[in-house]
Amino acid sequence: xxxxxxxxxxxxxxxxxxxxxxxxxxxxxxxxxxxxxxxxxxxxxxxxxxxxxxxxxxxxxxxxxxxxxxxxxxxxxxxxxxxxxxxxxxxxxxxxxxxxxxxxxxxxxxxxxxxxxxxxxxxxxxxxxxxxxxxxxxxxxxxxxxxxxxxxxxxxxxxxxxxxxxxxxxxxxxxxxxxxxxxxxxxxxxxxxxxxxxxxxxxxxxxxxxxxxxxxxxxxxxxxxxxxxxxxxxxxxxxxxxxxxxxxxxxxxxxxxxxxxxxxxxxxxxxxxxxxxxxxxxxxxxxxxxxxxxxxxxxxxxxxxxxxxxxxxxxxxxxxxxxxxxxxxxxxxxxxxxxxxxxxxxxxxxxxxxxxxxxxxxxxxxxxxxxxxxxxxxxxxxxxxxxxxxxxxxxxxxxxxxxxxxxxxxxxxxxxxxxxxxxxxxxxxxxxxxxxxxxxxxxxxxxxxxxxxxxxxxxxxxxxxxxxxxxxxxxxxxxxxxxxxxxxxxxxxxxxxxxxxxxxxxxxxxxxxxxxxxxxxxxxxxxxxxxxxxxxxxxxxxxxxxxxxxxxxxxxxxxxxxxxxxxxxxxxxxxxxxxxxxxxxxxxxxxxxxxxxxxxxxxxxxxxxxxxxxxxxxxxxxxxxxxxxxxxxxxxxxxxxx
Length: 642
Ligand code: HEM
Ligand SMILES: [Cu+2]
What we know:
Elements: E1 2-5, E2 8-11, H1 14-36, H2 40-47, H3 52-81, H4 94-127, H5 136-158, H6 183-211, H7 224-255, H8 268-285, H9 288-302, H10 309-322, H11 338-350, H12 352-366, H13 375-398, H14 400-406, H15 410-440, E3 442-443, H16 446-472, H17 489-518, E4 521-522, H18 557-564, H19 586-602, H20 606-625, H21 628-641
Antiparallel strand pairs: 1-2, 3-4
The structure holds protoporphyrin IX containing FE (HEM) and copper (II) ion.
C-alpha cells in the first residue's frame, strides 16, 4: 500500500499493517475494559494530576510500555541474527537499520530515563521529608512533554517512517541527502520535545532537594538516592542543552538547506563532538540514580548504615565531573591524534577509581550485615558482579590503541548492555519492587519477583556474554547478517536463546504486577524495616504525606527513631507548607499541542506550523495569567464555609 502524505512517502509493508491491526485491536479492547470496569475517573485523575507520586507512576507505566515495544524489537533483531544468511520476515537491510535505531533510541530516552525519573518522583520528596516537588505544575508539564516526544518517536513506525541512522544519528548519514525520509525528523522532534521536559524535571529536582528538605536534614545527612538525583540533575542541566543545540543545527541542515554537518563547508566530526559531549554524560545520567537506589537498598537489607557514606557522595560527584571529560573515547578511531587520544584514555580510566570505591563500599556494607534476600536485594546482589564485568570491558575499551580493534564491533554492544542493563535496568527493577508499597499500598508478589529476577539475570548473561566473542571474532555492530564462514554463528545463536529467556523474565514481571493487583497483599507503612523517611509515612503516600514535619537529627532517621525513640520521629518546631497542588488539564494540552506542532514540521505543513505556533504562544499567555494562589485561597474559603 503506497500513499502520499503531504509529499512524504507512506508505504505500508506487512509488518506495519500487522502493527496497525494490533494497535487498533488493543485500543478497542482497552476502551471496552476501562468502560466496563468504570475506570475513566482514574484516567482523568492521573491525566490532570500534579502530585509527585502519581506523576512518578505515569513515568513508570509509560517506561514499561516502551520497554515492551523496544524489547520486541530486540527480539526481532535477535531472530534475524540467529542464523547465518537469515531472511526473517521483512527485517533485513533498511528495516534492520530502523529496528536497531528505534530500539536503541527508545531504550535510552523513553525507558532508562523515565524509569529513573519516575522513581525519583515517587521516592525523593518522601525521602527528604518534603510534601511534594517544589513545582508540582511544572512536574506535570515535564511528564506530558516527555510523553509527547516519546509518542512521536514511537509513532514513526506506524507512519512508515522510522528513524534509521542509529541512536547516535551520525552525520552525514542523518542529513537529508542520505536519509530523506521523515524518519530522522521524528527523532529530532521527539527527542527535542521530551528533552525540554527532562530539563524542566532536572530544575524541579534541584530546587526540591535544595529547598524542601526537612529541618535538620543537612546535605550530608541526606540518603544516597536523593544525592544521586541531585548530581544527576546537574548533569542533565549541563548535558541536555548540548543535545538541544546539536539537534537544532541538524534540523537546520535537514529543513533549511544549511550544511553545518556536511558538504564542503560543513564537517560531520562536529556532530560527533556535540553528540558525545551530551552522550557520555548521558550514560552517567542513567547510571548514577541506579547507584543511589542500590545504596539505599543494600543498606536497608543488610540492616547497616551504608559503609563510607562520605566517600560515596564524593565518588558520585567525581564521576559526574569526570563524565564531562571523556567524550572522545567514542571517537578514538576518528584520528584526532595521539595526544588527544591519550588524554581521553587517561581520564576514562580514572573513572574506574571512584566507581571502584563505590563497589567496595557496597560490599563492605553487606559485610557482617544481617542480609535478607528479598527481591530488591536480589537485584542489588545481581547488579554488583554484572556491572563490574561491564566496567572491566569499559576499561579495556578505554585503551585507545586496543579500541581500534574493538570499535563498532559486538564487543561494544556487549559492553554497553552490561552497564546499562546490569546497572540501570536492574536498578529500576530493584527500585520498583522496593517502593511499590509507597506507590500503591501493596507489595509485589515475592515468589514471582524472585522468578523474574533469576530468569532475567540468567537470560541476560546468556544473551550478552557471547557477544564479546562475536565482537572479538570481528562481527561489526549494526549489520543485519553474516555468513557461515564468519565464525560467529554459535555466539549469535546462544545470544538469541538468552534474549528469549529475558523476554520470559519480563513477562513474569508484568504478570506479577497484574497478579499483585488482583490479589492485593496490603503493605504496612514500613514493609522492609526501613531506615529513611519514606517509611514513616502511610502507604500509598498521601497527598500531603508529612502530617508533622519531622526534625531530622541523624542519618537514617527512621532507623535511629526505632533504636532510641520507640519509633517516634522528633517533630520540627515549625511545619513545612506544601506547594500548591492543582488539578489541571493544561499540561496534557501543552503536550498535545507540541506533538501536533512537531508533526506540522515533520510533514512541512506551513499553515499548521503557524497556527499551532500561535496556539503554543497563546497557551503561555493563558498560563501566565492563571493565578493559582488566589484560586486556591478562594476554594479553601468556600470549603471552610460549608
Ligand atoms: C532486553 C534485552 C535487550 C536485547 C536482547 C538487546 C539487543 C540489542 C541488539 C541485538 C542490538 C543491535 C546491535 C547492533 O546491531 O548494532 C542492540 C542495540 C542497542 N541497544 Fe539493546 N537490547 C536489549 C536491551 C537494551 C536496553 C535496556 C537498552 C538501554 C536502556 C539498550 C540499548 C541499546 C542501544 C543504545 C543500542 C544501539 C543502537 C544503535 O546502534 O544505534 N538495549 N540491542
Ligand atoms: Cu562514553
